[in-house]
Design goal:
The protein is mainly alpha-helical and 83 residues long. The protein is built from 3 helices and no strands.
């Protein structure tokens, strides 16, 4: 795989991993004492988006490295699958 193919593969893998990680640790906002009803009741109390970005990046990086190594050592090739 070329560098461009590897980067594109990483980005394509990153998005589904990120969306899969979004519901992890989800706890909705409990009834608050203030009268601020500007929230959806289904909104998470602590979204922890940066943690989910990091987890998604690490998982996607690991998957990309594994696929890159399989391609580099010619265990399998995407080009052979196309032909």
């Amino acid at each position: 795989m070329s560098i461009l193919e590897t980067i594109i593969f990483f980005l394509v893998i990153w998005w589904p991993v990120f969306f899969i990680s979004l519901p992890f640790g989800f706890k909705p906002i409990q009834n608050s004492t203030n009268n601020n009803d500007n929230f959806a009741r289904s909104a998470p109390a602590k979204p922890r988006i940066l943690l989910k970005f990091l987890i998604s990046t690490l998982i996607s990086f690991f998957i990309t490295i594994v696929i890159w190594m399989l391609s580099y050592f010619e265990v399998f090739s995407f080009k052979e699958l196309i032909i």
